[in-house]
Write a structure and sequence with these properties.
ten-stranded antiparallel β-sheet; 3 helices; about 25% helix; globular
């Protein structure tokens, strides 16, 4: 299982690092998602809710856009819960342009770095798919983050009860050793936390430790 831990954490690191050679900076000229009437304090949302808002702009950037990774983020004022997050970051790739672009969706403003709605970074050069970071189509992304969380919690429940203070993060990505994109659900950190991998197409648990 320790070997699996190294594989899983390595997979996560590649998803974050292979797509971009430098940290993307938000672009002030990009349009934001249409504002919705306020009905109370901002609430965290599932990955698919954020994804489709980002995908609209990604598809207008380039028609052959593919998803490379999707990850939950947090802001102090809003508690992420049950597989829902206040902020989601997606990296989209264009095979035709050999570029990637980072899109961020937030349910609230947190100046100066986070704006409510969709924010878009400038395109960066992309070397193309690798064994550890494969782009994938939206049809392969069937399982939403809240469902992935519940599946992961089924194996992590005992550990989570013993460590109630550990925050959870979710990352979606694809690597050649998996038959489909997977959700990497992590409580705590990669060194001393607990993780579970969930197939994002079938919803089945792959493993957990």
């Amino acid at each position: 299982m320790q070997k699996n831990r190294f594989k899983a954490t390595g997979f996560l690191a590649v998803l974050v690092l292979t797509a971009c050679s430098e940290a993307p900076k938000p672009s002030a000229t990009q349009p934001e998602a249409a504002a919705k009437p306020a009905t109370g304090p901002p609430q965290p949302v599932t990955a698919k809710t954020a994804f489709w808002e980002m995908h609209k702009l990604a598809h207008s950037w380039v028609p052959d856009v593919l998803l490379l990774s999707l990850a939950s983020k947090r802001i102090p004022e809003i508690q992420n819960d049950g597989g829902k997050a206040a902020v989601w970051t997606a990296i989209f790739a264009s095979p035709s342009r050999h570029e990637v672009r980072t899109f961020t969706y937030s349910v609230a403003d947190r100046p100066p770095d986070i704006r409510k709605g969709v924010d878009v970074a400038r395109p960066l050069a992309w070397a193309g798919p690798s064994r550890e970071a494969l782009p994938f189509h939206t049809v392969e992304f069937s399982l939403d983050s809240d469902a992935a969380y519940q599946t992961a919690l089924g194996t992590a429940g005992a550990w989570v009860k013993k460590h109630p203070d550990k925050e959870v993060s979710l990352t979606l990505g694809h690597a050649s050793r998996f038959p489909a994109p997977v959700w990497y659900v992590l409580w705590g950190d990669s060194k001393s936390g607990y993780f579970a991998l969930v197939n994002a197409t079938t919803g089945k648990l792959i493993n957990g430790k």
